[in-house]
Amino acid sequence: MYWGSVSEFLAMGGYGLYVWTSFIVTALSIMWEVLALWRRRTAALADSRGILRSIE
Amino acid sequence: MNWSKYSAPLAFYPLAGKMVPWFSVVAALIIAVGLYIGLLVAPTDFQQGDSYRIIFVHVPAAWMSMFLYVVMAIWAGIGMGLKARLSFMMAQAIAPTGAMFTFLALLTGAMWGKPTWGAWWVWDARLTSELILLFQYAGVMLLRTSIDDLRRADRASGVFALVGVVNIPIIYFSVKWWNTLHQGASVSMTAAPKMATIMLTAMLLMTFGFWMYSIAVILTRVRCVILERESMPAWSNPSTAPEVAEAR
Amino acid sequence: MTRPSLWEALRGVVRRDLLLAMRRRSDVVMSVFFLVIVASLFPLGVGPEPAVLRTIGAGVLWVAALLACLLSLGRVFTADYLDGVLEQMVLIAQPLPVLVVGKVFAHWIVSGLPIVLLSPLLGLQFGLDGEALGVLVLSLLLGTPSLSMIGAIGAALVLGVRGSGLLVALLVLPLYVPVLIFGAGAVTSSMAGIGGEANLSLLGACLVLSLFFSPWATAAALRIALE
Lengths: 56, 248, 227
Hints:
In chain A, 80% of the residues lie in helices and 0% in strands. Chain A is mainly alpha-helical. Chain A has a domain at 17-48. The longest helix of chain A is centred in the middle third of the chain and has 32 residues, at 16-47. Chain B has one domain (18-184, 196-228): Up-down Bundle (Four Helix Bundle (Hemerythrin (Met), subunit A)), CATH 1.20.120. Chain B has helices at residues 9-41, 55-82, 85-117, 125-146, 150-164, 167-177, 197-230, 241-247. Chain C contains nine helices and no strands. Chain C has one domain. Chain C has helices spanning 6-23, 26-46, 50-72, 74-82, 85-91, 96-125, 130-157, 164-191, 197-225. The A-B interface holds A 1-3, 9, 12-15, 18-19, 21-23, 25-26, 29-30, 33-34, 37, 40-41, 44-45, 47-48, 50-56 and B 10-11, 13-14, 39-44, 49-51, 53-54, 57-58, 61, 96-97, 100, 103-104, 107-108, 111-112, 114-115, 213, 217, 220-221, 223-224, 227-228, 230-231, 243-244, 246-248.
């Protein structure tokens, strides 16, 4: 472990704002994409019961 | 094994479904390890301090943005060459994820640029061409949604994607061709990397993790696309008419 | 009946399009007027300070030329698409990319060349001096045909689609950016004393590339649009 304490970790040597914004926005974007896909999949499944019966 | 049977969308659907969980788990594990090493284990950088850690999302996102565009163009090209619906569906599924990574590359780049260069944005060759890449992804997606006829939408969007491939080498080589503010390549195929090994490891792990994530997400999306498109009335997809009639 | 040669087909297409354009002379005038209006908006918006205008002049004129070209793209294929002539062009025995080159060349003469010819006058409005004006004209001469060729791809892709005006702009403007950067860069670097040759040769390269590749892309897009 490189960091001495949690507060040092969060501060990122003074660059905390930039580093954490980057990582948090990345994480949020990934979560948003996964969520949007989950909703799209639910809607697509609901609309296509017929097709699914023929392939599964 | 006869792989060509999977070129039919309805045959590919279950195969993709089996692959998604594997890629998801691998992606989650590798990203977790990469973040652990990058954020908790790797030491601070001598010149840039801890702001360099943005590299662990910025570079993977940028590489994925370029890589996914090329793959999307290849699928579009295959679709046009072989007249295969599934190839176009793959291209359709790739675009949103590619656009997301382009956006992230630009945003995390700005986050890194502010402490390093003092500016959120500069109009140098690499940043400008990455921004153009975002517009290209938008164009590919907009062209598809604006055209009602599915077949025409596929192929028009494919032509546009292929025309835009010329931007990818420009993004990649721009730091070599022009005096730009953006730093040059630290990782190359032929020379030893100019980065500490542990930092390089974390960066490569994150890149691989993002790649696995992309595959999982794109396969999930193409499954949605298959359901959406193959459920349509028979006159849009005459070849699936027997299955549709049977199922309904 | 003897089949016309490639050269005759090309000449025929250019002649036809130029004749049609001559019958609707307003098209030529519209491009020119648009350029003048847009170029005049900037001094009005930014203020008439000569030093500022000299700094932004090259960029403003190039952006105005680019927008004028963009707006004129609707005229390359739409008329022929609407009255069925385009379908005939796709079906006849002549290679479609050659016919495309003919149409785009005629379009450039009507929409692009007037911009090139008018640019010195507008450049004077922005306080550009003799050498800069020369580089400006040369850059537009090399650049506007590229803009027409690249724009033709976009025009062909959106033929007959609703909302195609905005859509073609979104598709084509990203592809225009290199030409804009080199074109305006040629003038600004010549004004800075570095000389515009590097940017001008890059413009030339863009022209050659677009001349070779965009007819194929445009022809493919036309075939897709006409099925």
